[in-house]
Structures are given as C-alpha cells and as structure tokens.
Specification:
Length: about 230
C-alpha cells in the first residue's frame, strides 16, 4: 500500500512537471518570437501547445488557455496563410475560452494586450480586401474584428498589479527583518507567477524564520516546478 501511494505521488509530480514544462516552453518561444520575429518559433510553440491540448492527460488550466490564445494569435502574423479567416475563428474561440476561464481576472491584462494586435491585423487585411474590391472577404475580416471588439467590451482591461514594486517591497521587508510583511508581499507576487527566482528564496526563508516549515516546503516544491534545474 505504501509503495502504491509513493507511486501515485511520483506520477502526480511527474504529470504536474510535464504540464508546467509545456506552458513554460511555449511562453519562452513566444517571448523569443516577439524579439526576433522568427516564424519558426511560433510554429514550434503552436505544435507544442496543440499536441498538449490533444492529450487526455493534459490539464487545460486557465494559464494553458491563455498561452494557447497568445500562440494562435501570433501565428496569424508569423506567416502568410491562405485561410486566415478560418484561423482567426479558431483564435477567437480560444480567446473566448481563456476569458471565460479567467474568472478572477488574473490574466485579463495579458489577454487584453495580446488580443488587440489580432484585431488590428484583421482591420489591415479587411482594408486590403476592400482596396481590391473583394467586399465579401473585406466584410468577413471586419466582422471578425467586431467580434474581437465585443470580447474586449465584455472583458474590459484592468490595471495590472505592479508586481515589480510589490516584489521589491517584499524583498526590502525580508532584508529588514520584517518577515510577516515580506510573506504578504512575496506570496502575492508568487501567486501571480511572477518570474523572479529569488522571490521564492526570500519567501522560503521568511516562512522558515517564522516557523512555518510546511509552507516553506510548499514554496520549495513550486520553485522546483517553475525553475527545474
């Protein structure tokens, strides 16, 4: 029985690690594409996330949908597609699912920022179709742009938490020996997936110094998932 429990825990840990790795790698490729504009990076990210979503073992979390939406949106820009309208319908569906799953607006800002260029691209394509007197295609592009605008209205952009400010406040609190204040600030940014490895270290130390070993171990496990060696 003990061996079975250990095996199940190991399986769960492996599955969680694989899940996080796919999302992390896809987001890394998105970041690299935004810098280099190399279309093969988005093609790789799309292949990675598509395969993950096809797997019955992959947990379709809010972050997974947000990542998928960003990747699909950027794929419209990374290369010329013959069937952009069909592709955009898929992007619209994924964004809709991402917005719906983001019930606490944790990713609202990221979604709003990433969906706007998709709308702008459709307006550009619609204008090109109009200039060629292809009015039906022009309408199709502009109609999709209005549907994206409907999403923007339904899920208005919210001012994001300035995580760098919150992190710095937490770090200074920790360095100043104010562990309780540090825990509040650092836990807040880590809950938002703030990408600073040292934030985890500061929080782990603060929890330990306050005698909260279980919480320290939980953050250590989370750190290992997000920053595998």
């Amino acid at each position: 029985m003990k061996n079975l429990v250990i095996a199940l825990i190991t399986l769960f840990a492996s599955s969680t690690y694989a899940q996080q790795s796919v999302i992390t790698e896809a987001n890394k490729l998105v970041t690299e594409f935004n810098t280099s504009q190399k279309p093969e990076l988005i093609a790789e990210a799309k292949s990675l996330i598509d395969k993950a979503f096809e797997s019955s073992d992959f947990k379709k979390t809010t972050k997974a949908y947000v990542t998928k939406a960003k990747v699909e949106g950027l794929s419209l820009f990374s290369n010329e597609q013959d069937d952009t309208i069909s592709s955009t319908n898929q992007v619209l569906q994924t964004y809709t699912e991402a917005y719906e799953k983001d019930t606490n607006a944790k990713y609202r800002y990221d979604l709003s920022i990433s969906i706007f260029p998709v709308k702008a691209k459709l307006v550009e394509l619609g204008s090109k179709a109009y200039s060629k007197s292809d009015y039906k295609k022009g309408y199709a592009y502009y109609n999709l742009a209005t549907e994206i605008n409907d999403l923007e209205i339904a899920y208005p952009q919210v001012t994001p938490l300035d995580t760098s400010v919150v992190f710095t406040a937490g770090m200074l609190a920790k360095l100043g020996g104010m562990n309780k204040e540090a825990i509040t600030k650092l836990q807040q940014v880590i809950d938002l997936d703030y990408d600073r490895k040292d934030a985890y270290g500061y929080l782990i130390d603060a929890y330990r110094e306050e005698g909260m070993e279980a919480k320290a171990k939980n953050i250590e496990a989370l750190k290992a998932q997000r920053y595998p060696e």
